[in-house]
Amino acid sequence: MATTEVRPEVAVGGVEVRQPYRATVLDWLTTTDHKKIAIMYFVTSVVFLCVGGTFAGLVRTQLMQSGERFMDGDTYNQVMTMHALVMVFLFLMPMIAAIGNYVVPLQLGATDMAFPKVNALSFWLVPLGGILMLSGFLVKGGAASVGWYINPPLSNSQFAPGNGVNVALAGLAILGASTTLGSINFIVTILKLRAPGMTMMRMPLFCWNMFVTSLLAVFSLPVLTAGFAMLWIDRNLGANFFNPQAGGDPILYQHIFWFFGHPEVYILLLPIMGVVSELIPVFSRKPAFGYKAFVFATLAIGALGTMVWAHHMFTTGAINVSFFAATSLLIAVPTGVKMFSWTATMWRGKVKWTTAMLFAIGFLSQFLIGGITGVFLGSGSIDFSVHDTYYVVGHFHYVLVAAALFGVMGASYYWFPKMTGRLLNEKVGKVQWVIMFVGTNMTFMAQQILGIKGMPRRIETYYVPAWNTLNLVSTIGAYLIGLGLLMWIINMLVARKRGPIAGDDPWDANTLEWATTSPPPYYNFDALPPIRSERPLFDLKHPAEGAEDAAESAEREHAGAH
């Protein structure tokens, strides 16, 4: 994407001026600049999105009608398993790292991440882990075909011989190390490298969400890596951590996996919530409603997100259903606070319907559907009826595909001008939004209805003609999603060379990343404005209006407290 930088100290006629130069391949391979690393994260995640999306298209083609044999059973299971692993660990998590790496130091007024070399290492572990994981297709027996949970006993050496599971576990361990190192880097950067005057309660909401996300990752990912190591030792060295015939317990693996698996939902969603929290105030021309309430809601989601993992295990009979149902439903409270904050921010605002804003609104609707359907799964009695059906698949994809993907799209349309100095095509973007909005709802609503009608998940084919129409609708919707993503990629490629010049602040934005050039120099800032609120750039450009908005916001929060 952005390949032009500036040399800050080139003398011309005795005057220091900036002159652009073109970065070489070696510059990119050896860089520790957070902006270049972010762009490499971004490109890598888009490549893996294409891989995982292709797998998804193959799965939906197989299930388009009853009795379809587009792939044999083992190939189908491999493709289905790798689709899930690629989309979660090689698309969404690196994409979060891409957005965070580019935006967080700029929003904090920092020159780089706290540990630039560790940041580079975190990135280079991603393609290494991804290539290793996908190399399972080349080994004897094929790639892992046991589902993305990799649950024993299905994943032990008796039922999953060959090296497919082994290379998947090794790749996932490398990717876990990458995310853990990156999360530590974000935590230290946020705590130690904020600009003078930027207290924690003046920090942009995106940074708050990245902070809590990083805490969750550091808390949960080492547990998952330990579980993968135990499973690998079971498979290859004769241990019996999860073998009940030798005193092990496969339920232990489920606890380990889901102790990561449910915080993982918020590891992926909280940064997207942060993105939406930046977009809605900017395009509503208002400060975020209830800033402090939003911050505390983010912290509450992080805390409660570590207490709900076993609602994935209701049907095992090994957990207290009432406790985990209560904590699962309780997490709806801080989430509702955020929904109210976003809605109140738009209320009576001067909303500008850019593509980025449309994707933010799309996130709200998709996340609302995913959240409401999740409430049903949080109720033990309902979960017993729909567990392991396509209802769960539809809910999961509403949250982590429809909602998260819309947030990623909104972030790209908003920050692409900062990264490249050029604007994406808004007309193409709005057509893309319509196609993806229709496609996601066709795909995942049909899957939820199929689940209610009894269609189980993870089946390679079916012989129930009554499911044909809904599966056809779901498959057509998946193709529409793919078309929308293709439009997005082409839009970026064209705009990188021919897009309109954006200027330094095309959105009349609020936060510090827009106080420097587009794209920024390697040292980020010539000077920083005074920081007196969470909207320092807006305060600088509109001092009278900023004071008025602050007073009005304080009055509303005071009234709300009573």
Provide an overview of this structure.
Helices cover 66% and strands 3% of the residues. By secondary structure, it is mainly alpha-helical. It has one domain: Cytochrome c oxidase-like, subunit I domain (Cytochrome C Oxidase, Chain A). Strand 1 and strand 2 form a beta hairpin. The chain is globular, with a radius of gyration of 24 Å.
What descriptive keywords fit this protein?
562 residues; mainly alpha; Cytochrome C Oxidase, Chain A; globular; disordered N terminus
Taken from the alpha-carbon principal axes, the silhouette is: globular
* Unreliable parts: 1-20
Main pleated-sheet profile: 2 strands, antiparallel
Instruction: Estimate nothing, just give the exact number of structural domains.
Output: 1
- Which percent range fits the helix content? 55-70%
CATH class: Mainly Alpha
At the fourth CATH level, what is the homologous superfamily?
Cytochrome c oxidase-like, subunit I domain
